[in-house]
């Protein structure tokens, strides 16, 4: 599959047993999600674990948060490849109807069209009221986070084999399996809906928490050295 060529992203939501997961082209309009996103990047523990000691924690203004999400995720990811970051929230009462509620720990449902409208409410009022706890994302690393290729570098495979998984959860929700539940759902969604063939990821070497999570998701250490960062470990997970 190719890009969306700048077209608007269809509104949909993914439901897991505990979570509601919404593409950021929708979630960027929610002040509550933008506030959560800003708070994450002002949290020292979150920034050091996710990005390393070289990434300073600081408060992002609402305008900066909105512009950052729009430019770095929506324009560079969703509008190009039809995937990107998702806002991750706790499911509220309005999304617990029996026909919308997965019954198995590893299950999820994707709500589109009338099903989405029924759960989202008028102008997304129900979804906007969710308690946002983090994000989980998928992006074509070759056009986003990866440094330019240099002479002598191996040729890269197709973009559907270069999909980078990323995630971030508020520290007060660490240890509850939220990143794993959200990541598993969006990975499966991307395989079914976007034809993704392989996932990749990178972590700081001392971030054992993320390493353990990636292993639970089926990732193994790789020697690809895509990011060329000695302080990082690289991971991969081929679709079976």
SSE topology sketch:
Blueprint: E1 13-15, E2 19-23, H1 24-27, H2 31-41, H3 44-51, H4 62-81, E3 85-90, E4 109-111, H5 113-120, H6 125-128, E5 131-140, E6 163-169, H7 178-194, E7 198-204, H8 208-216, E8 220-222, E9 232-238
Parallel strand pairs: 6-7
Antiparallel strand pairs: 1-2, 1-4, 2-3, 3-5, 5-6, 7-9, 8-9
Structure summarized in a few sentences:
This is N-acetyltransferase domain-containing protein. GO terms for molecular function: acyltransferase activity, transferring groups other than amino-acyl groups. This protein is of the alpha+beta class and 240 residues long.
Main β-sheet, spatial strand arrangement: 4-1-2-3-5-6-7-9-8
Assembly classification? single chain
Distance between the termini: 19 Å
Share of residues in strands: 15-25%
Class from secondary-structure proportions = alpha+beta
Low-confidence stretches: 1-7
Shape: globular
Rg of Cα set: 17 Å
User: Overall mean pLDDT score?
Assistant: 88
Which sheet architecture does the biggest sheet show? 9 strands, mixed
Number of helices: 8
Helix content: 25-40%
- Tally of strands: 9
Helix-strand pattern:
EEHHHHEEHHEEHEHEE
Organism: Penicillium hordei
Domain N-acetyltransferase: 69-240
InterPro entries: Acyl_CoA_acyltransferase, GNAT_dom, N-acetyltransferase
Pfam families: Acetyltransf_3 (PF13302)
What does this structure look like?
The protein is of the alpha+beta class. The chain has 8 helices and 9 strands. It has helices at residues 24-27, 31-41, 44-51, 62-81, 113-120, 125-128, 178-194, 208-216, and strands at residues 13-15, 19-23, 85-90, 109-111, 131-140, 163-169, 198-204, 220-222, 232-238. It has a 9-stranded mixed sheet with strand order 4-1-2-3-5-6-7-9-8, sandwiched between helices. The chain is globular, with a radius of gyration of 17 Å. Residues 69-240 form the N-acetyltransferase domain. GO terms for molecular function: acyltransferase activity, transferring groups other than amino-acyl groups. This is N-acetyltransferase domain-containing protein. It comes from Penicillium hordei.
């Amino acid at each position: 599959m190719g890009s969306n060529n700048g077209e608007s992203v269809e509104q949909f939501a993914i439901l897991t047993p505990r979570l509601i997961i919404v593409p950021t082209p929708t979630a960027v309009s929610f002040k509550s999600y933008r506030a959560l996103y800003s708070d994450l990047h002002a949290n020292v523990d979150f920034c050091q674990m996710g990005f390393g000691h070289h990434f300073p924690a600081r408060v992002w203004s609402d305008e900066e948060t909105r512009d950052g999400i729009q430019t770095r995720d929506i324009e560079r990811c969703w509008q190009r490849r039809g995937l990107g970051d998702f806002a991750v929230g706790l499911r509220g009462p309005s999304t617990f109807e029996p026909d919308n509620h997965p019954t198995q720990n590893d299950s999820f449902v994707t709500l589109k069209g009338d099903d989405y409208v029924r759960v989202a409410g008028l102008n997304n009022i129900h979804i906007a009221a969710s308690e946002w706890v983090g994000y989980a994302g998928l992006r074509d690393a070759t056009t986003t986070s990866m440094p330019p290729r240099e002479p002598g570098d191996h040729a890269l495979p197709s973009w559907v084999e270069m999909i980078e998984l990323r995630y971030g959860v508020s520290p007060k929700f660490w240890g509850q399996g939220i990143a794993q539940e959200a990541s598993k759902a969006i990975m499966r969604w991307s395989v079914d809906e976007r034809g993704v063939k392989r996932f990749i990821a990178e972590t700081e070497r001392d971030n054992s928490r993320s390493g353990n999570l990636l292993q639970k998701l089926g990732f193994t250490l790789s020697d690809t050295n895509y990011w060329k960062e000695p302080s990082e470990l690289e991971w991969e997970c081929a679709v079976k």
